[in-house]
Design goal:
The protein is an alpha+beta fold and 78 residues long. It contains one helix and four strands; from the N terminus they run H-E-E-E-E. It is 28% helix and 38% strand.
């Protein structure tokens, strides 16, 4: 087995373990930050969104940006 194959197996095993752990949680919260840039833009655009997820099918995405703000919420049925 090559070093690359061994590393790949170790990485897959770790990802499987982490995924298994997250599946046991009732929910999770985090902030997702997206940075967008282009050659013709004077400066990059940065947008932060707070994300909250709860089992079985509840979630909320709430923007922290005043300019491009949007909220998406699911209460489990709509």
């Amino acid at each position: 087995m090559s070093v690359d194959q061994a590393t790949s197996y170790e990485a897959q095993a770790l990802l499987t373990k982490v995924t298994g752990y997250y599946k046991t949680l009732p929910g999770a919260t985090f902030t997702n930050t997206t940075r967008m840039s282009a050659a013709d833009m004077p400066e990059p655009m940065v947008q932060a969104v707070d994300v909250a997820i709860a089992k079985p099918n509840h979630f909320a995405l709430r923007s922290n940006d005043d300019v491009m703000s949007s909220n998406v919420v699911c209460n489990g049925s709509s």
